[in-house]
Amino acid sequence: MTNIGIVGTGNMGGMLAEVMMDQQSIPQQQMYIYNRTKERSTELQTRYPSINITQDIRELLSKTETVFLCVRPNQYKSLVNELKKHLTLEHVVATITSPVSLKDLETLPARRIVRTVPTILNRTGKAPLLLTFGNHWTNKEKTLFEQWLQTFSEPISITDDTLRISSDFISCGPAFISYLLEQFILAGVKETNITVENAEMLTEKMIISYGHLLGEGHFNFQGLREKVNVPGGITGKGLKVLEKFSEGMFEELIQETHHKYAEDKKEMATLFQGKTDM
To answer: H helices within 160-248, ranges in order?
Structure first.
């Protein structure tokens, strides 16, 4: 892989930079980063001293062939103007921002546009990464790019009509599950004599081992639940409580994430309708 540029090394951009270098998908010397705040760049450089900090978008694009846009939707306004000025036909532009449409990004000078939606789980070097190619890639180019992504992730091709729900599962899902487990732990501490430390330790070991069970193919979700829930047992009593209080909860969650997604898409679309110089 040629030189890589990352615009924005916040939670996701920084994680992607780290895992790319840790998995040796790209040497430190070929990694170029840009942030609006220099502190984030220098913080990453303390851990990866050979990376290159650029002063602006123009410099980053002049030194790289593939650039990952890892900024929030509300930060795209000034970024789009810079991309229009300094991108070339040969650049590869990868956005991790789900509300921006590939069709709109294809109005930029670069020919090859791709969406690569990550999850915090990508820090392991193994987790899913949602992949959608634009319209102007050759099959060979797609294959080579996907092979490179496989060095630090598990790229999964999706279509735009399932983008938001797919992102709910892999990107938002870890936060949702963490919240539910935190509430489980707090309730255990409140209702019994267990300490927070022991409750957290047991829950962490449970969820790690749970992942191994699924990963090794011993169970699927339903099979695991049925295996644990023996007739007349304690687990069944707990499941009835979950059934009672979770009714409609996840439907509302999905409605909320999709409503926010629709708002962000509308806002992003205005940036590509001749309004970026306002």
So the answer is: 163-167, 173-191, 196-215, 221-228, 234-246
- CB neighbour class for 168 (10 Å; exposed up to 12, middle 13-18, buried from 19): middle
H/E run at residue 20: helix 11-22
Q: Do 48 and 31 contact (CB within 8 A), yes or no?
A: yes
Instruction: Name the H helices within 51-195.
Output: 57-63, 76-86, 102-105, 139-149, 163-167, 173-191
> Tens digit of pLDDT for each residue in 105-161?
999 999 999 999 999 999 999 899 999 999 999 999 999 999 999 999 999 999 999
Domains of the chain: residue spans and CATH? 4-158 (3.40.50.720), 168-258 (1.10.3730.10)
Burial 200-238 (b: 16+ CB within 10 A, else e): beeeeeeeeeeeeeeeeeeeeeeeeeeeeeeeeeeeeee
Number of H-type helices and E-type strands within the chain = 12, 8
On the question of pLDDT at 249 being above 90, the answer is: yes
Q: Whole-prediction pTM value?
A: 0.90
pLDDT value of position 39: 85
